[in-house]
Each structure stands twice: as C-alpha cells, then as structure tokens.
Amino acid sequence: MKKVKFSCATTLLLLLGSFFLNHTTAQAQTPVFEHAVDYNDFVVGAQEKISINYQIVLLALQDKNTTLDQVLAMLAELIQVTDAAIAEVEAAQPYPSGEGFKAGALGLFRFYRKMYAETYPEMFELMFTESPTPAQEARISELYGDLQQSEPIYDAKYIEAQLEFARRNNFTIASPEAAPEK
To answer: Of 5, 71, 94, 164, which cross-links 102 as Cys (Cβ 3.0–4.6 Å)?
Structure first.
C-alpha cells in the first residue's frame, strides 16, 4: 500500500479550500439582503411562484375536459412549489426588523400548503363526482366556507406584517389589495 505524505502547506491549502467551498456554497443557498426592499421583493416573489401555479389549477378547473387525475397532479405540483417557497423563506436570514414579515409569510404559505394538501383534494374529488348527493354538496359547501373564514385571517396577518416592515424601513407598498393571492 502506497503512503501519501502531505506537507503542512498542502494540508493547510486543502483545509482552506474546503472552508471556502463550503462557505460560498452556504452563501449561495442563503440569500443576503442589503436593502429592505430586496427582502420584501424576495418574500413577495416566493408568494408569486405559488400564485402562478394556483392560477394554473384554477384555469384547469374551468376546462370541462379536465379530469380529476389531471387536477390532482397539478395540485401535487402546486404543493411542491409551495414547499419550495416555504423552504426558501425559512432558509433566508430576514432583513433586520423583518422577522414579523417572515413569520407572516410563512404562516400564510403553510396555510396554503394545508389547503392544497388536505382541503382541496377532498373538495375536488367531491366536485368531480358525477351525481353528488346532497350530503356531498353540503360537504363541499362546508369546506369552502371553512376556507372563506380562515384565509382572510392569514392574508391580513401577512399584509399587516408586510406593511409594518415597510413602515419600519421607510418604503411604501404599492397596494396591499393588489398583492397576489395564493
């Protein structure tokens, strides 16, 4: 067996190289924000990714040729996009005073994920039933009503946290009402 000898200089170079490689890889995975607006745009961008995929599901539901399997596959993709957005925001170090905004965004995104993973599959399966019974129709209404009650709470917390973050950092949000949905 051949023995390899490393000089102290070679060992030091290997250790430094490893450190810088790991350090730059970690930096690439965790964005750093120099300005509050950049952090705001990052969080809103994560929400927009979710919103775009949500709109695709809504459009599919309007097409009478769309099958339940197709909708459920789109929903699975939407869950993946939502999981990725949650992971991105969780991994990001918030801009100073951005902890509340981060918490508000994560609360909203987690609500979306639960809705996409639990409520929507049940609702869509019932909606695609050829001849729904009155009990099935009542369940659809119940699920929809629950969402109608819960979602505004998460939306309001998110918008409130975003506006507070903007106020603390001396910038304005164009229009909270125009913020993308889901």
So the answer is: 94
Q: H or E element: which one contains 66?
A: none
- The range of the structural domain enclosing residue 148 comes to 34-178
Q: Which long-range contacts (CB under 8 A, 24 or more apart) does 88-92 make?
A: 88/42, 88/46, 89/42, 89/43, 89/46, 91/29, 91/30, 92/30, 92/31, 92/33, 92/39, 92/42
> What is the pTM (predicted TM-score) of this model?
0.79
Integer Cα distance of 150 and 107 in angstroms: 12
**Structure confidence by residue, pLDDT tens digits, 4-36:** 333 333 333 333 343 433 433 334 467 889 999
Q: Flag whether 16 is in a domain.
A: no
The pLDDT tens digits for 129-144 are 999 999 999 999 999 9
Letter for the amino acid at 62?
Answer: Q
* DSSP code string of 115-179: IIIIIHHHHHHHHT-SS--HHHHHHHHHHHHHHHHHHHHHHHHHHHHHHHHHHHTT---S-GGGS
Residue 96 lies in a domain: yes
